[in-house]
Specification:
Blueprint: H1 19-52, H2 59-83, H3 89-115, H4 129-146, H5 150-156, H6 160-201, H7 210-217
Length: about 230
Amino acid sequence: MSDYKRPNMLSTYPSYGARPLATFFLFLRGLQVVAFIIILGLTSYFVSEIVSAQASVASEIVATLAIACVATLYTCVSIVFFYARANKTLLLLAGLDLLSLVAFVVVAVTLGRPISYLNCFALDNATSSADMANAATYAASLKNNIGMNGNLVGWAGATKASCFETKGVWGLSIALCVLFTCTTLVLPTLFAKNRRGKSRRGDPQHNAGGNAYARNNVEYDDEDVRL
């Protein structure tokens, strides 16, 4: 009994009958959390710069910030459900991941259409508040003269820094589309693998020695916990 070691949480995550896929899913979730943190930081800073110039915030940036906040909360909660051996909840998570995928496809397209024409390297390096204030006039001019979504383009094209910030959010939105596509495919696969593994083991109550099997295995999968 003195040699007993409490299992580490990181080494005892549920395998759902396919440990490599479960590990891959957690890896993807980690990348999603990192991407969300960066997006929240960039968009929050961008909003603060616009507000400091006493101008209205671009609707695309506000929508991106709101979607990123909700998606970040969902992503963190889904990890908890995954560790709690969600089983059938995996299908629900797959559906929510699909909705998140659709949301970030819309974000990527909405941000990409106006700012894909900007050349950040050709812009000035200045980051003063005067440049940000002049961007408001430039944005209004774009919107009134060429019917373009000048609000976002005006702010993104104000300085080189703001251009790279906006394109960074756009690039991370595209990356999240890829990540959510992968998790949407992995989650149903884990559900199928877990269900197939349980069907192979069968119901212990209908097998000879079933009571002993139930005592030895409790509620864990064969590969879930190794002491």
